[in-house]
Amino acid sequence: MVVMEVSVWLRTASTRSKCMIDDSRAAGVRPYPPFVGITHDEAVCLRHRDWSETSQTVILLTRSHGLLNGLAKGSKRERAAFSGGFELLQRGQVGFIRRPDRDLLTLTEWDLLDAHAGLRSRYRPAVLAMFAAEMTASLLAPGDPHPRAFEAMCGMLSASASSGCVGAGPDCEPFTRYMVSLLDEAGHLPDLRPGAGVGGGVLLFDPARGRFVEPSAGRVPASDPFGVSGDGEVWPIRAETAGLLMRAVRGIVGAGEAEAGVVWVRACRFLAAWGVYRSGRRPSSLSSFLRITRD
Q1: Distance CA 267, CA 111 (A)
Q2: Domains of the chain
Q3: Sign (positive or negative) of CA dihedral 68, 134, 64, 27
Q4: DSSP string, 17-65
Q5: Tally of CB atoms within 10 A around 254
Q6: What is the value of pTM for the model shown?
């Protein structure tokens, strides 16, 4: 079911975005006078759902205001000031009004800046980006500004949409870099300082403690790191994967560093499993994510 949803998104994401980036600035009449107090910010669409035939509810990651939950009335109408409506993973300029008596912000406009159209033709990067969007919505608190996470998200989307490299490793690299930034900003970055190995270059990571641990009789490998880890269950991780993650955390992994593609894939899966563990939620795109990151 999820694979079908991903495929449908790749095939049917609005073609209006190709022609409305320039036209949207002149589209429609702004329905709110300036004295209402409209706030503007740059944003990436993490999720959208139909509220009615012409309206949408959305979750946005903004540069200066963090996560926003909003209602865009009439966003899909032809002459509305919403660039044809919100689409997943697009970047734009949003206008919104805060009302203390409402849970949802009132969105007044959406000026499309970058549709990241390259993701439409690249299945693996698209799935990784969708998974990252779900993790972002789960790990960050609404209204808490995270400009570094926003910049990292924009960098990941641009790299994933424009990369000419083919293969799981190059596709997983932007995602891995983004997850490091996201987890750091959310306060969930694990302690990746290496502990004692178990032989053969394998380390044991204890998710309950958020760090590597030494082998002991009471610790057993988890059957599914993406499931519910029981007491004493640990995640085996290769030393070379842990080394790559540690360098990524320190910011000393150069772009396109000559690492085996499989190492980026394993690092990608580790951070994804940790994000799921910390958020306590299984993203709807998880099954597709696991399928494309098998090493």
Answers
A1: 36
A2: 13-115 (2.40.50.140), 119-292 (1.20.1440.120)
A3: negative
A4: HHHHHHHGGGSS--SS-GGG--EEEEEEEEEEEESSSS-EEEEEEETTT
A5: 8
A6: 0.84
Contact 186, 209 (CB under 8 A): no
Other Cβ atoms within 10 Å of 218 Cβ, number: 8
Closest CA to 276 of 293, 263, 289, 261: 289
Which DSSP symbol is given to 186? H
Print burial letters for 119-148: b (CB count within 10 Å at least 16), e (below 16).
bbebbbbbbbbbbbbbbbbbbbeeeebbee
At residue 75's C-alpha, the angle toward residues 117 and 19, to 5°, is 35
Residues 35-57 have pLDDT tens digits of: 458 999 999 999 999 999 999 99
| pLDDT exceeds cutoff 50 at 18 | no
